[in-house]
Amino acid sequence: MPADSRPEVEAPCASTGLLASQKVVIATSWAVMMENPTENGVEMFVRLFKNYPDVQGHFAKLSTLSVEELKRSPVLIAHAQKALAAINHLVDSLDEPGELVASIQNLAQDHQHRGVTSDDFKIVLSTLQSHLAHVLKDRYDDVTATAWKQCCDVIWSVVDADMNKNS
């Protein structure tokens, strides 16, 4: 009888708590979003503003625009592209915890100066997850949802700690 016939258990990353398999799921599912980053980014922000109209007020140049105007707004398009590029960088940094944390802290500081709170980030991260579910459809299974929830929880905890430190 072998000394240990139990299957090998995946150890979570000490910094993020994510399993290697979850990082793969996150990267694979994110690649689908990045097939059309402009459209997906704009749709995600439109979803955010529809579900949380107060958040639209953080964007002076967008605060009075209708949904149809938002979809065509160069300001929203540029911000959506920038946001998805930032998330893409975070996904690419999942195996580099120091870089990941520093990048999240930079995002937190940049947004805090604009009056964005950690609660606002929580709303955006929730919207990101619901938009991923919309884009991925049946590919957004329980494994994918759990991986993204844990990833977003890590992002939010760094944002919250950084914003509370700087307030």
Automatic annotation (TrEMBL):
Instruction: Give the protein's recorded name.
Output: Globin
Molecular function in Gene Ontology: heme binding; metal ion binding; oxygen binding; oxygen carrier activity
Q: Does the keyword Heme apply?
A: yes
Sequence similarity:
Belongs to the globin family.
Q: Which SUPFAM superfamilies match?
A: Globin-like (SSF46458)
Zinc found in the keyword field: no
The UniProt keywords, alphabetically, are: Heme, Iron, Metal-binding, Muscle protein, Oxygen transport, Transport
Q: Which GO terms describe its cellular component?
A: extracellular region; hemoglobin complex
Q: Which residues form the Globin domain?
A: 17-164
Q: Which PANTHER family match?
A: GLOBIN-LIKE PROTEIN
